[in-house]
Amino acid sequence: MAQLIDGKAVAARVRAEVKSEVARLQAERGLIPGLAVVRVGDDPASQVYVAGKKKAAEEVGFRSWEHHRDSSISQDELLALVHRLNEDPAVHGILVQLPLPRHLDADAILSSVRPEKDVDGFHPLNAGSLLLGRPATRACTPLGVMRLLEEVGCEPAGKNAVVVGRSNIVGKPMALMLLQRNATVTLCHSKSDLPAEVSRADILVVAVGVRELIKGAWVKPGAVVIDVGMNRKEDGKLVGDVEFTAAAERASFITPVPGGVGPMTIAMLIRNTLEAAMRGVTPPSH
Ligand SMILES: NC(=O)C1=CN([C@@H]2O[C@H](COP(=O)(O)OP(=O)(O)OC[C@H]3O[C@@H](n4cnc5c(N)ncnc54)[C@H](OP(=O)(O)O)[C@@H]3O)[C@@H](O)[C@H]2O)C=CC1
Ligand SMILES: Nc1nc(=O)c2c([nH]1)NC[C@@H]1CN(c3ccc(C(=O)N[C@@H](CCC(=O)O)C(=O)O)cc3)C=[N+]21
Q1: What is its EC number (predicted)?
Q2: pTM of the model
Q3: How far is 82 from 96, CA to CA, in rounded Å?
Q4: Which of the following is catalytic: 53, 54, 159, 220?
């Protein structure tokens, strides 16, 4: 029977570390980290996540702002908002909540955030730096997963790590971070033979968004299973992408949903914002 990985508890510890750093920064340098979150439209899930981010930011002593805009906002208006936040010295981190309405060009918006303020790690410069193995802001969800692996003493070097899902925000950066730590990485997607690939995984990270896609019977005995998926059932409860009960019978460690990766994503966002504030911001080039 697997041991549960308590992401909620680890996340609380990360936030507590940040909170004491914030107190020190304020006392020594008079500096208060600031996080600006941009939310467009009325997606109920986004509303919940953004509220969670704001609450965490305030709890650790950051300044935080939520800029909520109607879904009818134009590309130019949204770019102008990001530009204003780019220029605002009180703002050290900017997060544009995804998904954006279809009429907006999300790539162009994410690319318009100053890389130094891109606490999501989604700017091409930060994403590219991960690919090249250079220091840069890393995407929060995979960063949180790496921290959870560390917490349970799971050393990726030499292990078979299988990542299911190849999105730019989770799957791809996850595969790169595991590769950087010398795992042998397989990145799966909708054309992969999942039962065959999953059954070889010593470390399995699943980020698809299909309820209980990964069957417990596919899990290699002793594997560490990280479930990033978040799917809402008809009764309103959240479930992951992994058949939890059956997988827990074979895994050595497994994350629950909720209470696993989700809280870590927010904790890493908070840490990325602290780091952005500590680095400071170079003045605009014009
Ligand atoms: N806990 C957290 O902090 C976070 C949770 N999430 C959750 O993680 C999940 C994934 O999110 P995100 O990465 O944005 O997802 P995307 O929708 O962007 O990508 C989904 C990926 O899953 C693959 N996929 C879809 N169906 C299958 C299938 N049947 N078999 C194998 N692969 C499949 C797709 O493959 P292909 O490329 O071939 O189409 C794609 O690569 C969602 O449930 C989301 O809510 C996301 C971010 C943070
Ligand atoms: N620019 C941007 N950055 C993101 O980081 C980003 C985003 N857009 N869009 C959506 C996804 C999703 N995401 C989550 C954050 C917290 C939880 C979380 O805290 N989950 C709780 C449960 C919350 C609940 O009960 O609904 C848990 O798993 O325990 C989940 C998912 C960040 N995302």
Answers
A1: 1.5.1.5, 3.5.4.9
A2: 0.97
A3: 9
A4: 53
